[in-house]
Amino acid sequence: MLPTFDTETGVKKFLAAGLGAILAVMIVTVSSAAPTAGRQEELVNLVKHDCGSCHGLTLKGGLGSALLPKQLSERPDEDLVAIILEGLTDTPMPPWEGQLSEEEAAWIVQLLKKGVPE
Ligand code: HEC
Prior knowledge:
The relative contact order is 0.12. The protein contains five helices and no strands. The termini are far apart. The longest helix is centred in the N-terminal third of the chain and has 27 residues, at 7-33. Helices cover 62% and strands 0% of the residues. It is mainly α. The chain has a domain at 37-114: Cytochrome c-like domain (Cytochrome Bc1 Complex, Chain D, domain 2), CATH 1.10.760.10. α2 (37-55) packs across α5 and α4 (77-86) packs across α5. Heme C is lined by residues 46-47, 50-51, 53-55, 63-65, 67, 71, 80, 83-84, 88, 91-94, 96, 108. Heme C (HEC) is lined by residues 46-47, 50-51, 53-55, 63-65, 67, 71, 80, 83-84, 88, 91-94, 96, 108.
């Protein structure tokens, strides 16, 4: 028997294939946005030295407030990413936009929330 053309099944298959393709693209985009291992090492050093110069070498606070998991774990990621990229007006917290991409700032936020390794 010849298969009859069933529009509904056809549309469902088409949608499923389309969704699959979109998901695949999203997964590739997300994984390629994560900093490479070498860049991650640079970012850890940047956090310890550059951020540490104001926030304290162990990030317990100095000129800038403490950046430990205790202080940051409840804060929304996007707020912290925005602070890092844009800085805080009326405070010495500088914008890092020129030096860090949004993905890198997001990675730093996760690092700070987990706690920077000694
Ligand atoms: C020139 C000094 C300086 C440097 C360098 C610096 N900060 Fe800051 N940062 C500050 C100050 C001052 C504040 C405001 C603290 C306050 O509100 O009391 C601040 C605030 C913040 C906040 C918000 C904290 C909160 O609890 O609201 C985050 C997050 C932050 N800095 C992350 C970073 C990161 C990440 C880096 C490195 C990429 C960095 N800072 C580098 C001075 C600095």
